[in-house]
Specification:
alpha+beta, three-stranded antiparallel sheet, single chain
């Protein structure tokens, strides 16, 4: 079971998503675009967001929470 993620203003979160057994994460480019659009909707709620697709079976993301002064 995954532990609860602690968060606070200015927190930096790193997340990875892998396809099971090296399988593709998205079955088509349309679903990948939907995922990117969803991430785009977070822009106003986070300070910094970086994500990269490494092949078809791995996504790495880094998201920084907004600070109170931001």
């Amino acid at each position: 079971m995954q532990r609860i993620r602690l968060t606070y203003e200015g927190a930096l979160h790193h997340a990875m998503n892998r396809g099971h057994g090296g399988e593709k994460i998205f079955s088509g480019s349309g679903l990948k675009k939907v995922f990117i659009d969803i991430l785009g909707n977070l822009r106003g709620r986070v300070s910094t967001m970086n994500f990269e697709f490494l092949g078809d079976s791995l996504i790495k993301m880094t998201i920084k929470q907004k600070s109170a002064s931001a």
